[in-house]
Every structure is written in structure tokens, then in C-alpha cells.
Amino acid sequence: MGDLSQIESTQYVSIADETSGYTADVQLGEDSVKRLVVDARLVPRPIAGLFIAQFEDSGGSIALNTNGSTTPITFEIPTTNFDRAINKISIYGRDGGIKFGQFLAINQILQNGLLIEIKSDDNVFTSLPIVQTDDFRNLFCISPRDFTIDVFSNEDVFNATFVSPEPIIIRANTQFTTPDYVRITVRDNLNNVNYLEANVIGGSI
Question: Using CA atoms, how far apart are residues 42 and 22, in angstroms rounded to an integer?
């Protein structure tokens, strides 16, 4: 790069805000030629906007192990008056004798299954139904590593996490006529499951 003496600022030169991780400064080299030096680095972001929200039904219950066979029961994360970006959705629980080829420890495949819906930026995505344990690993999780089962003597513990390749934008509840949402609908009788909950992790934007 040529000599920058004609365009050099007398102050610190920045091509982007420092919080973005890119800064630039004019430096004098050993050959007495002034050069624009760009510094790119990872800048830690504050976690003030970090949030973890549990799915709740209309009555405030977080227990997905409920009976939705007659009337499906929907669970959503609470709405807010600010935009959010969701990175992970996790479903986790406990049951005695979790197996593949059936839904957790229920000795059969569900008739309707759990349905996961996301309305992001006014666009709706609906997942394939989760009707058996295998579906948590093969349909819900992007990577098999995001699905675990820990076997214990009295009951087994499982965790399935959807890690989004891009942030899922959930706009403020005043943005659209029907606010954005992340929803899980229970459409079978899951009363025999010992414990089942779900949450999301993300940040405000």
C-alpha cells in the first residue's frame, strides 16, 4: 500500500465500531512508509440481553407431560415488547426405560406426536411430528451429538437440543397482527411420562 501521508487523520482512524471487532489505524513502518493497519479480533459481547425462557401453556404450566389427546395443548415462550434472537430449543425429561422405536418409555409410537412450530419475522415453519424417541435425534436435532440419554437404575434422563444454524428472530409482540412465536403442541396423552419440559436460549436484539 502506498504512502498515506496525504489522507492520514490526526486522530484515531476507525473503519468500524470497536464492538464489531474491526479497527484500523495508520502506523509508521520501519521503512518510514505510513500504512493502514486493520486489526480484526473477537470482542466479547455483554450478556445483559441473554435469556432462557420455558414453554408454558395458557395456564402457566411448564409440564409437557399432559393429556392433549382430546384437545391439543399448546405451549409457547412468553411474548415480549422487544425483538429476540433464539439460538437453541431444548426438550428434556425423565422416564423409566426410555427406548427407541417407541415414545420414551411409553410402549408405543404416538398417534399424532409433538408438533413444533416457529413463526419468525411473520413466516411460519412447522416441523415433522415427533412420534417416537428416534425422532428427537433424527428430526429435531441437527446433529446426533445434540441428543443424549443417560441411563440410571430408577429412570432415564434425556435431552434433545435444536441448535439453529442462524438466529431465529422473534419480533416484539407489537410488530405483527399475530405475534411471532415458538410453539410446542402436545396432541397425545403423555400423562405416563414422568417429566417433560422445554426451553429456549437466546438474546435480545
Answer: 9
**Could you report the per-residue pLDDT of 97-145, keeping only the tens digit for each?**
999 999 999 999 999 999 999 999 999 999 999 999 999 999 999 998 9
Rounded distance between C-alpha atoms, residue 103 and residue 194, angstroms? 12
Residues above pLDDT 70, as percent of the chain: 82
Q: Which domains does the chain have, with CATH numbers?
A: 1-44 (no CATH), 50-204 (2.60.120)
How far is 96 from 170, CA to CA, in rounded Å? 36
49: number of Cβ within 10 Å: 13
Which amino acid, 6?
Q
Average pLDDT, whole number, for the chain? 86
d(CA 73, CA 66): 8
